[in-house]
Structure formats: C-alpha cells, structure tokens
C-alpha cells in the first residue's frame, strides 16, 4: 500500500504541475458526407461573451485541425468549406477540470436550404448514459478500462454480472453479444476466451439494450453491443503495457488508418496471468439411524498465456454500398496443478491433478450493407465462419494414506487426453424498410446457424499388478455433434406520435441436432420448431417520464455441453454428464420499465414476471455413500418475479455516481420441491460505480459489486468485489498512467450449499484476486499544424461573425 500511496502522490503532483497556468486545447478532423477528409476547411473559434476574440485555422490534408492556448470560458466553433453547408458547434466550455476537447469526424453536408447553417449544441460525454431503459458505458472515459480485458470491463457496467460459472448475465439472463453491431456466434467457452483476450483499451463503449431492436427482440437477456475504437482520419496507433502484483502482464498494440471511404484497425498483443485458489467441500449423508461425513480440501494454481489478433476493415464504395471484414484470432495456453486431500475416515487419500491445455479460436466475418436513397431503408448481409480447437491433457495421480496420513503403498495413475475440434457457419440477412408516411417501419430477416463438433477422449491407467499403462475403455470415447438453427422473422413498428409508439413481431425457428456415438454405434437426434412472438409499447412524457411495456417469448437451447451423453468419471466422487433427451426451455417474459432522465440524474425502475417451461439445470443426485452425479435435467417449470433499478446522479461536474441492482425470485413447482428437493430462492446482483475528476489530466473511477445467486438445490454467494482506478494523462495527453487496486480488503470467495433428498454439500472456494496493476499507454498520432491567417482575413472573419444590430 505504501507503493500505491507514493505513486498516487506522484501522479497528483505531476497532474497539478501540468495544469499550472494551463489554457484550453481543441483538436479534431473534418470530413464530407463521403467520409473524405477536407483539406483547407476554415475553422473559427470565438468566445460567446466577446465575438471579437476569435481564432482561425484551416484543416490539413487529413482534415485535422487544432487550437491551443485558449482562455477559459464558453465558446462557439464554426466550420465552413466552399460548396458545403456551414456548421456551428455551440457551448463548448473550457475550464480547469476540462480544458482539452477532441472532436472527431465533423461532417459537413451539401449546401441546401434545409441545412444552410446547422447549429449543434455540444454535450460532454459522461461515463454512463441511460436512455429509454438502455445503458451506454463509455469505456474510453473510464480509468478501469486500461490494463483490463473485455470480460473484466463488462462486470463494471450496470446490470451486467457473471454467474459462478463465468457466464455473462443481464438482469439474471444470458444476453446476445455483439461486437461492432455484428453477432458473436460462439459457445460459452469460446466467448469467454475471446472476451478475456480482448484488451479493454481497444473498447470505445459498451451498450446494454434491455429492450433490443427487432433483429434480437427474442434474446432472453437482451443485447450487449461492444463498440471498438476506430481512430481518426490518417494514421494513429496506441501501445499499452501493464503488469500486476498477482502475477500478470500484458502488451497490446493498436494501429488505425482512415482515408476517404476506407478504414482499417488492427489490434495485436498478448497477456499472461496466474491464479491461486483453495477450497473445501463437506458432504453429509443422512440415513435412518446414522449420518456419514466426507470432506475434501484442495489447492490449485493455474497459468494462462493468451496471444490475440484482430483486424477490422471498412470500405464505402459510395453512400449506398459498403463492405466490412473482421478477422479475429485468439489462443489460450493453460497449465494448472491441483492437490486434493480426501478425508473419509475409512479411505484417506491425496490426489494431484496436472492439466495442460491448448486452444485457439479463429473467426472471419464479412458484411455487405446497402442503404437506399430513402432514409432508414437498409439491407444487410452477414456471413460468419469460425474454427476452434481445444486439446487437453490431464494427469491424475492418487496416493492412499493410513490413519496417520502416511502413504500406505497403494496408488493409482490415470492419463486422459481430450481433443475437441469445432467449426461453425452463420448467415444472417436483415432488411429494414420505413414506409412513405415516416411513421410505419417494417423489419424482416432470417438466419442460418450451423455448428459441427468432433470430440475424442483417450484414457490410460496404471495396472496395480504389472505397473504398466493400459487403455481404460470406460473413459475412452469419441462422438460427433451437429446442430442447425433456421430462423425467419418479421416485425412492424408504428409511431403514433413523437411520444408514443408500438411494435410487434414474430420469429419462427427450427432447431435440429444429432449425436453420433462411435464407440457404441449409437445415434441420438432431435428436431423441434419454436414460435417466438414479441410486442412492446413505448410512451414518453417530455422531460418527465418514459414508460416501456413489453412481452416476448424467448428460447434457451441446450448445447453440446448440456446434451453430451458421455459420463465424465475422472473424479470418482463427482460424476458429471449431459443429457441428450433435454428439451429447450421456453419463457414468456412480461416487463415494465419506467425511466426519467434529467440534466443531473437519470433513474430507471424495471419490474418483470416470467413463466418458464421445461427449465434445465444441473441436478446433483447421490449414487452411493461416497459418490454423487451431476446431470443436466429438465424440471416441470418455474415462475420468476423480477425487480431491477439503474440510476445515476451528477453531484457536481467533478463527481458522478451510478448504482444498479437486480433481484430475481424463483418459484418452483410442487412436484420439483417434493420429488427433487428444489427450493424457492432469490438472486441478487448489484453494482456501485463512482467517478471523480480532479482535473482534465487526472481522474479516478471505482466499482463495487456484490452478487448472490440461487440454484434449484441451494444458493451460491459471491463476496464483495472492488476495483479502484486512478489515471493520469501526461505528455500533452499522449501518455496515460493508470493504477488499479483490485480487491484490496478481501479476496474473492464463493460459498455454496446443495441440498439433496438425503444429503447436503457445503462448498467453499477462495481465489487470490487482490492485485495492484500499473498500466502505461502511449498514443502515436500526428497533430495538425496550426495555420496562421493574415490580419486582414481575421478582420473580415470577425466582422462576418459579429452579431448584427437589429
């Protein structure tokens, strides 16, 4: 902590020194409607209080311009170019805590009567914005983004959290993930690897759509859209290096190039991290006349090396036709070692499990967009292909102990290799058409999603008599899994007035899957249709209240992991398997969201009721005295009651606070409660986010989360998580130094209880999450050169801009 305090004092002193006698700085770039840089555009900055005090410059060949030494106060900024309509940006406020403004992509339109002199009121971008129930987290404004990855950054967004298995949730449900408005078609593990390898510094903003557009209206958890940084016209780059006391390092580089209709963005880098954890499990078996106890205690250490590469290219042929290509590659080389002591009184043992894994994910996405001359008419086609490979080697060595915990001469050795190869294709077509009345909007679309996986596991064990390694057929298997989803949708939105609109639509889907079990020459398959309607109503009272009432039917499909019939018996005390007879889970969601947004605060309140059919969960049952089996099973259904709120308040221009919380209460059927010992219970997720700006060069951001998740057979509690970020901008804002203090007071802990018909299990896990991370970032770009106007030109310009006497 002494290091942290010393570093903070240095940053504050440096920032204060940098601000002494500071004057304002303004920069940006100017484009025409074809995204071509405008060279020689006239840019004039003048004080609102005294228009005679004006500064003038012209843009360079990349459309860039800049002003410096600007006295504090309120200003207007005017852009003009021969043949194009002039544009004025009003109310730019230079002050001690905000004296540097960067305006990118100022677009000048063709001159006509409608936009001859357009005036835009400048609005500063807050850390978190809320509008009509949707949330925008401006990651570029947060000190938490530097040095973190996308997965970590998402948990700082209101309403977003992770369940105990690492799955992202929004208000307790799994959302659809988009990156730059394009859907990510990956399974949970592939998505987790992608987000953990994606640097937070490459993200511009994160949008949470609780009431998503018609293309994704039937997603159960709404939509999370991650928007990456695009860069300015010309060439620019960013280099970020970070290191933490937990044993983590990362290096990431970014290169941007933009010119006229072409834009290219490349991100590449790698990260290394390690985790240490300890855990215990206590099981009690209840019999008519007695109770038996079983206890295990474990310690583990893991290391992950994650190289990553992402390239994005956009090209606009003209205003109507454009294409986009995205290539993404990420890899994870993982090693771990876990030691476990088994302590049933009659069979003490010590087991060491070593695991080496290598996996990669490669993804290519191509997008074609057509925009007609009619505003709002858009046709978009997206083709996406992915490859994934995961190879895993496990070494299980177990020694049996006597009553004094000494090795009794008996041991066992098991070697297991698993190879999983997957590929997928996704084709998506969307068409949006506004009718000529400008009040009716149609949307149509379709997609085809294909997944193919081949999984093979080979196991060998050491014979007790000969000591030789021989094949173990019980843990050797191979199977093929295929899934295909076809979708057709349509919707209509009617805007009855500026403050009232309704929308309705339906999706029809067919899902089919096939398991081919080579070992037993068995084939398991299924196909089913789903009918998914939605409807919503939005009413707003200007500057007072916004109300959204919605209904949607959503589907949760079981995937490879849930359907796989293979029994994993590598842990003899906890068998695991999927269930090929699982049915999809269909939910009827009814939601009411009330929201208001003022200059200094926003507040939202959401209430929901859901009825869920054929819920599938992992259910633990007892096999014998020492062994339980965890298997995916359908239950008869449940009801959910939801309550959520997300709010923000600007205490002052320096201090902003955001708070969100979501609570879901589950009610199971009488059959499940009596026959499976299910228990009603509630899940709570919460997030408190605060931002304090000392000056334009130094700011802090803090995030606090608390989560508690309920499961059908018990509950899991996650302790408080904290992240304190301190950021200083140095060297004319080209360099940023960020210090993150993560979980300074308490390590991450999870405590869960499982209640079976004749047993209970208590599980506890603690992970060394306390970390002090230092991140240094440097931006490479070319500043626009200041152009000097002659005194004569200045006088002409000042005379033209001066207000006329009436």
From TrEMBL:
GO terms for cellular component: cell outer membrane. Residues 786-806 are annotated as: Disordered. Residues 1-18 form the signal peptide. Keywords: Cell outer membrane, Membrane, Signal. It is found in: Cell outer membrane. InterPro entries: Beta-barrel_TonB_sf, CarboxyPept-like_regulatory, OMP_b-brl_3, Plug_dom_sf. The keyword Membrane applies. This is Outer membrane protein beta-barrel domain-containing protein.
């Amino acid at each position: 902590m002494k290091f942290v305090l010393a570093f903070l004092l240095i940053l504050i002193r440096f920032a204060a020194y940098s601000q002494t006698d500071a004057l304002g700085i303004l920069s940006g770039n100017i484009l025409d409607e074809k995204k071509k840089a405008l060279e020689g555009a006239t840019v004039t900055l003048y004080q609102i209080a005294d228009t005679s005090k004006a500064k003038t410059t012209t843009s360079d060949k990349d459309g860039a311009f800049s002003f410096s030494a600007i006295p504090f106060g309120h200003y207007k900024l005017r852009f003009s170019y021969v043949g194009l309509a002039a544009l004025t940006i009003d109310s730019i406020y230079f002050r001690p805590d905000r004296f540097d403004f960067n305006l990118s992509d100022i677009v000048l339109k063709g001159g006509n009567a409608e936009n001859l002199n357009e005036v835009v009121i400048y609005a500063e971008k807050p850390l978190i914005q809320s509008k009509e129930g949707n949330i925008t987290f401006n990651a570029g404004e947060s000190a938490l983004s530097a040095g973190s990855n996308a997965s970590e950054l998402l948990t700082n967004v209101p309403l977003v959290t992770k369940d105990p298995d690492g799955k992202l949730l929004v208000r307790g449900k799994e959302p659809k993930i988009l990156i730059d408005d394009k859907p990510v078609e990956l399974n949970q593990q592939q998505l987790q690897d992608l987000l953990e390898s994606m640097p937070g510094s490459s993200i511009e903003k994160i949008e949470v759509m609780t009431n998503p557009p018609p293309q994704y209206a039937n997603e159960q958890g709404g939509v999370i859209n991650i928007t990456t940084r695009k860069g300015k016209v010309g060439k620019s780059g960013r280099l970020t290096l970070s290191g933490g006391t937990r044993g983590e390092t990362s290096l990431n580089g970014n290169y941007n190039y933009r010119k006229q209709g072409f834009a290219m963005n490349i991100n590449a880098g790698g990260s290394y991290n390690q985790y240490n954890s300890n855990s215990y499990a206590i099981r009690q078996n209840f019999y008519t006349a007695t109770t038996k106890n079983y206890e295990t205690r474990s310690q583990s250490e893991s290391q992950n090396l994650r190289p990553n590469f992402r390239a994005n290219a956009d090209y606009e042929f003209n205003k109507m036709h454009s294409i986009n290509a995205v290539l993404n590659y990420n890899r994870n080389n993982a090693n771990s070692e876990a030691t476990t002591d088994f302590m049933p009184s009659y069979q003490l043992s010590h087991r060491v499990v070593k695991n080496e894994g290598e996996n990669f994910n490669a993804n290519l996405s191509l997008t074609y967009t057509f925009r007609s001359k009619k505003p709002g008419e858009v046709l978009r086609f997206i083709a996406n292909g992915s490859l994934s490979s995961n190879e895993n080697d496990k070494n299980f060595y177990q020694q049996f102990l006597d009553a004094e915990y000494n090795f009794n001469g008996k041991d066992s050795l098991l070697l297991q290799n698993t190879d999983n190869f997957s590929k997928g294709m996704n084709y998506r077509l969307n068409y949006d058409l506004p009718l000529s009345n400008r009040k009716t909007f149609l949307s149509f679309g379709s997609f085809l999603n294909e997944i193919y996986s081949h999984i093979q596991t080979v196991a060998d064990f050491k014979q007790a008599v000969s000591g030789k390694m021989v094949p173990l057929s019980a843990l050797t298997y191979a199977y093929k899994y295929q899934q295909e989803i076809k979708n057709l949708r349509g919707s209509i939105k009617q805007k009855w007035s500026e403050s009232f609109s309704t929308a309705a639509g339906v999706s029809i889907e067919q899902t089919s899957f096939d398991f081919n079990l080579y070992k037993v020459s068995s084939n398991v398959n299924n196909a089913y249709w789903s009918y998914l309607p939605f409807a919503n109503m939005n009413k707003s009272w200007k500057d007072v209240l916004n109300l959204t009432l919605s209904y949607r039917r959503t589907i949760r499909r079981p995937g490879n992991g849930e359907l796989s019939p293979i029994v994993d018996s590598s842990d003899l005390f906890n068998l695991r398997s999927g269930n090929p007879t699982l049915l999809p889970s269909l939910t009827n969601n009814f939601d009411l969201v009330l929201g208001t947004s003022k200059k200094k605060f926003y507040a939202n309140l959401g209430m929901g009721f859901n009825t869920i059919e054929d819920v599938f969960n992992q259910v633990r049952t007892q096999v014998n005295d020492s062994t339980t089996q965890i298997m995916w099973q359908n239950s008869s259904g449940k009801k959910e009651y939801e309550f959520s709120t997300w709010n923000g308040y600007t205490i002052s221009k320096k201090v902003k606070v955001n708070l969100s919380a979501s609570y879901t209460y589950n009610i199971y059927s009488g059959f499940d409660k009596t026959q499976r010992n299910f228990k009603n219970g509630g899940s709570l997720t919460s997030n408190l986010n605060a931002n304090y700006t000392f000056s334009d060069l130094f700011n802090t951001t803090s995030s606090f989360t608390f989560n508690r998740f309920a499961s059908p057979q018990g509950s899991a509690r996650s302790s408080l998580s904290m992240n304190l970020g301190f950021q200083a901008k140095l060297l004319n804002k080209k360099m940023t130094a960020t210090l993150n203090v993560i979980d300074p007071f308490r390590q991450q802990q999870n405590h869960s209880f499982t209640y079976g018909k004749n047993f209970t299990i208590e599980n506890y896990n603690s992970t060394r999450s306390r970390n002090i991370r230092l991140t240094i970032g440097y931006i490479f770009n070319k500043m626009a050169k200041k152009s000097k106007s002659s005194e004569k030109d200045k006088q002409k310009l000042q005379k033209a801009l001066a207000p006329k006497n009436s």
